[in-house]
Amino acid sequence: MSLSFLERGLLLxxxxxFLEGTVLTLGAASSPDISAQDNTGGGxxxxxxxxxxxxxxxxxxxxxxxxxxxxxxxxxxxxxxxxEISLWVLLASLMKLGFHLIPRLSGIVPESCLLIVxxxxxxxxxxxxxxxxxxxxxxxxxxxxxLPPIILDAGYFLPIRPFMENIGTILMFAVVGTLWNxxxxxxxxxxxxxxxxxxxxxxxxxxxxxxxxIISAVDPVAVLAVFEEIHINELLHILVFGESLxxxxxxxxxxxxxxxxxxxxxxxxxxxxLGVICFLIVSLGGIAVGAIYGILAAFTSRFxxxxxxIEPLFVFVYSYMAYLSAEMFHLSGIMALIACGxxxxxxxxxxxxxxxxTTVKYFLKMWSSVSETLIFIFLGVATxxxxxxxxxxxxxxxxxxxLVSRVIGVVGLTFIINKFRIxxxxxxxxxxxxxxxxxxxxxxxxxxxxxxxHFPMRTMFLTAIITEIFFTVFVQGMTIKPLVDLLAVxxxxxxxxxxxxxxxxxxxxxxxxxxxDICGHYGHHHWKDKLNRFNKKYIKKCLIAxxxxxxxxxxxxxxxxxxxxxxxxxESGGGVKLPSAMPSQVSMQNIQPKKLxxxxxxxxxxxxxxxxxxxxxxILRSNLQKTRQRLRxxxxxxxxxxxxxxxxxxxxxxKQRMIELEKKMSNYLTVPAAPPDSPTxxxxxxxxxxxxxYNIKASSEGxxxxxxxxxxxxxxxSVNMLNEFSKRGAKDQGxxxxxxxxxxxxxxxxxxxSSAGKEEKGEEEGGNKxxxxxxxxxxxxxxxxxxxxxxxxx
Amino acid sequence: xxxxxxxxxxxxxVEELMQETGFTPAHIVRLYDRFEALDKEKTGHLRPQDFGxxxxxxxxxxxxxxxxxxxxxGQETVDFHSFVRILAHFRPAxxxxxxxxxxxxxxxxxxxxxxxxxxxxxxxxxxxxxYDQDKDGKISRAELLQVLRSMLEMQVTEEQLESIADxxxxxxxxxxxxxxxxxxxxxxxxxxxxxxxMSIRFLR
Lengths: 794, 204
Prior knowledge:
- The complex is a heterodimer.
- By secondary structure, chain A is mostly helical.
- Chain A has 32 helices and no strands.
- Mean pLDDT of chain A is 71; it is low at 30-59, 575-607, 627-646 and 670-794.
- Chain B is mostly helical.
- Chain B is built from 13 helices and four strands.
- Mean pLDDT of chain B is 70; it is low at 95-117.
- At the A-B interface, helix 21, helix 22, helix 23 and helix 24 of A face helix 3, helix 9, helix 10, helix 11 and helix 13 of B.
């Protein structure tokens, strides 16, 4: 089995690479042809319009010779750019798909390596075809399109608590560590360049330092890509990852500083002071910009309760604008993005609907995944594109120095940091932190950005950068997983938080705050507590819609757990013994504070005895089966007899299960299924069991006439039918007639507190709602979801 | 330095105290200053009212429980020694620290096999004792409800509290006796990194 998979996977890969390569070369090749065509032929109307009046070739060629009407023509140039972009994205996605089809390979080699290899192949193919490799890792494209999704994804889902707990360590590594790396590598490289016999003596100090600063920054993309796969424990992950994010500010400042002054040839102490001030402005400014946009986004999300569909858009657009605004001022865009995501998240999540939350999550993951894949492929392509200037000394010294400086830096800093940490970093931890310092595409793009005229040795730099990236990603990336296993480093704990942990952690927090107060000490907990109080009192009131700001974190957490359990219950098909004895009707009450009428709280679900149930079911079944034959002739939709009969047993079984399920689910669902008479429901119902609707209706009236009005969303038919139904049922059991609440109650008919009518309704609804119920239940949410249905109603 | 020594000399049995708890002289002095500041009437003992005077503690949902922890059952006042001894529970993990005799009974014999250093254990045991007001070694549903009520203040209804309490017990209760024993408590917290909680650096 695995062999066929392997074969299939490899074949797929090879074919894809060929396909992509050929199409791209065709695309590159055909564009000059088209423009040549323009000169000769009468031309395409659109092109003429675009070009306007000026243009000699148009004037000379505008002798209208009548040709045959072009029935089919090829106009690649028109769609070239979007087409190529889509092709690249498609390639990236298919590669990702392909790798997971070959599990053995993805176990040994990290994805990033494979992607770089693919990029190399594609680049190679393009070059083989003789075409010019497009400059895909263009800095603009990289910094403005490819990098933001990854950073936003990281920032939005950043685990705030471990990040803040280790912020001191992270900052030390990010700032001091990067500075150390930059100067060590740059300085020693310069020294090496000055040695006789290396022919590198024209490389000056400042360019070397610039190179050092470019190459010393740990890259978040590469770190994410590799660390995702090794599942290392949270502390190490957040240390390395946090460092890679925060060193952006340092890199930006150093880069600009050295780039500016490389022309001048020297850096005065004044410049250094200015550099330090610049660093503070860059980092704090970036964070401030991000925070402002984050608050704006949170505030906007407060008002989106009526337009749920565009909620995710606010998250994305505000974040992207934060990034762009920061980049506009040459502040740290990465820090802005992180700050924006982290600030807006708690408030936005309290405001947006469940579905929007899922959308945000999946879109972010999707974009960041595609971006990451593309970046690595482009790295490969850019390597092939060149131009390269290989210099053995320079490159090898770079690689060695980077490794050495990283190790020394980490060890030295840890020695200092451990004096202040409660949980010390062990040698193993230090090793992983040092070894996990991967370089990536940011370094390459920064190098690419260098001006050719100011830096004649740019190509040499680029070659060295690429080599370093390859070294870290391939060698370090591939070996880190076995090393982690070998050293038995603690792995990530997979289990989710239980409510116990939540409660006890809060309890401990309170306890420690209290002790700090007794000691009169304004410590860690004191400030955290103060921040929380401030947050609760002022900020949440502004930024969270409705009554939900009062909801304590514990309750929100508890609700989430109940939701999850409810979802699991439904997906497992019902019939599961539920742990909580008490139906949490009250939890529903809290989530829908505005809409729920007080009557709902006293809702009591009547329990029918087994005997009664059976009776009712038997009656229904017999009646439905009887009318089946009669109805066939009246069907507007021609039905083939056999499928209907085959499906009948399934239908009955489903109905039975649905009854049981419903009894239990009605306690836990906060979203009733969509009202059975919305057209979506009607369509779905009819699609699956067209006759069911007719049958039930007919049986209730006793006369085989069918009037089905599909168009009306609130077909009074259904309500009347139910009324009929309940009357029938009541008659059968000799109970008094009960009134069936009308459709006004927007909770859906399922929740009506009528006892006699309930069973039948349950049956009928259960059967009818079969496809719809499952669909709705698969993603429940707060009841303001009802408003989402409105656009669907005609 | 001189003031430290003079303050130290005022405290009886300070050597013994330092050895027992592991506090340095500087710490003892700071705690003594704090003790004196709280002890407004200079009686040399603290009463619950003195603790209650700390404003921020009054805002703390479990403030009164914490205060109660300082006073052994039956005692009305707490002297400096007991004050320091109890605060010693909250010092960060320190392997050289001597064993604390006031830990709950079932724990002592198993200290050596635990993966946590003794003092981290101590924080959990203090927390457990704060939950378990009637000192029967288990957190019953009623006790849990009380804690939840005080933590969540007025913001939730009684039924919600009950369902949360039920859920909590059901999750943690392994021997199905409808209460959480110390072992179960500790087990449910083993994934939480307690070390990080011990960040009252002041007391190092």
